[in-house]
Design goal:
Elements: E1 2-7, E2 12-23, E3 26-38, H1 40-43, H2 51-72, E4 81-82, H3 85-98, H4 104-111, E5 118-119, E6 124-130, H5 134-151, E7 155-159, H6 160-166, E8 179-181, E9 189-194, E10 199-205, E11 208-214, H7 220-230, H8 238-251, H9 274-287, H10 295-324, E12 328-332, H11 339-352, E13 356-357, H12 361-364, H13 369-380
Parallel strand pairs: 1-6, 6-7, 9-12, 12-13
Antiparallel strand pairs: 1-2, 2-3, 3-8, 4-5, 9-10, 10-11
């Protein structure tokens, strides 16, 4: 089965093509191509993602990116199936009538793409339905609906957070175009999902997913971005905070500020990072009373902030593993590109004697490969997903 994945939940426009096939009780996957177009530079002026801008850029970039994807996967010229002129004209007319008022950039891009008349050898379209920014989600969903109708292919919705979990099952050291067997975690497993919009602990079992801990306010990635802004660093803030923290560690610099480890000993598995961000705000105000912040002071504070986040996350992960009797630790989400957190997760795995599944640093962030993969796994497990396509900004993980 060949699956086209579409991901537009935030500020990355992403597309991917994979093939799947059964191999006994396992699933084999072959990656055809995966592309991600980041809008980070555009949003940096706002210090975070501006939803209306994200929606516009998804609409402008998705169809050109699709053409690049098909070319890269050698599918742009291979098929000899076409949409006849009458059906193409009828579809474009209806799309412009139904979708153009809300998605003018997408419809303009769609109507100018003659390559869409050629039907690629794809069996299914998988698209992120949530959680995420609803204006951005709607662009991907609308594009999937349009392509599904034009090419007469089924379209299935995928939970973005499930994508982050299953992304850890792929071995990116296997060359593109080569078949690989997905990693099979021993269950039950605990998944730590850490991104700009979410911080969750999920129990993974043969029955599906159960969220057993989540942030009560800011997500960890959001806290990274806000602290970076307070320190005068660019968006996205995570890599810049981590760079300063590493410089401080290498130079033996410690902060004179002691930040809280929020809810570390709360007795439950929930998180809260708003207070940590506020503590940084007060520290910055005090230190910048003369109008500037010394570079070594910023490095030390970045190290202290990263320590606070890491210690809080790992304390909750340990508690979750013990509560669930977990046999595998999975970690995913954009913040898991952080080298410190990756090492912490590997240390926890060694401590409990359980395997740790981490996506590559490239696949930690939002991508469509994980969306296509989630759809392929659901199909192989004969899971019946609901067919109504609707953006759900607060979509939650649940049972299969």
């Amino acid at each position: 089965m060949t699956i086209l994945g579409i991901e537009t939940s935030c500020d990355e426009t992403a597309l991917a093509l994979i093939e799947t096939r059964p191999a006994g009780h396992e699933l084999e996957v072959r990656v055809g191509a995966s592309l991600v177009h980041s809008q980070a530079d555009l949003h940096s002026a706002y210090g975070g993602v501006f939803p209306t801008l994200a929606k516009r850029e998804h609409g402008r970039n998705l169809i050109p990116l699709l053409h690049r994807l098909l070319v890269k996967a050698a599918l742009a010229e291979a098929p000899d199936r076409f949409v006849d002129d009458e059906r193409y004209a009828s579809a474009m007319s209806r799309f412009n009538s139904e979708f153009a008022p809300q998605n003018p950039d997408l419809c303009d891009s769609f109507s100018g793409a003659a390559f869409l008349k050629r039907i690629p050898p794809i069996d299914m379209i998988a698209v992120t339905e949530g959680p995420g920014l609803e204006p951005a989600l709607w662009v991907g969903i609308t594009a999937a609906r349009m392509l599904g109708e034009l090419w007469q292919m089924p379209v299935v919705p995928v939970n973005h957070m499930e994508g982050h979990i299953v992304g850890s099952l792929l071995d990116e050291t296997v060359p593109t175009g080569a078949w690989q067997t997905l990693k099979k975690p021993a269950l039950p497993a605990i998944a730590l999902l850490v991104s700009g919009g979410h911080t969750e602990l999920v129990k993974v079992s043969e029955h599906g997913y159960a969220v057993i801990g989540e942030t009560l306010d800011d997500a960890a990635g959001e806290a990274y971005d806000k602290v970076a802004r307070l320190l005068g660093l660019p968006y996205p803030g995570g890599p810049h905070i981590s760079m300063l923290a590493k410089q401080a560690e290498d130079a033996g610099i410690r902060s004179s500020v002691k930040l809280p480890r929020p809810m570390k000993s709360s007795g439950d598995l929930n998180f809260s990072f708003a207070g940590l961000k506020t503590a940084v705000l007060y520290a910055v105000r005090t230190a910048s009373s003369d109008g500037s912040l010394a570079e070594d002071w910023k490095r030390g504070l970045a190290r202290e902030f990263e320590d606070a986040v890491a210690e809080t996350l790992t304390a909750k992960v340990r508690a979750a593993i013990e509560l669930a009797g977990a046999r595998t630790l999975i970690a995913g989400g954009g913040v898991m590109a952080n080298t410190r957190l990756r090492h912490e997760c590997l240390d926890i795995g060694a401590e409990y004697g359980i395997p740790v599944l981490l996506p590559s640093q490239r696949l930690s962030g939002d991508n469509a490969l994980m969306i296509a993969l989630a759809a392929g796994l659901d199909h192989s497990r004969h899971i019946q997903v609901q067919r109504t396509l609707k953006a759900d900004g607060t979509k939650r993980l649940g049972p299969f």
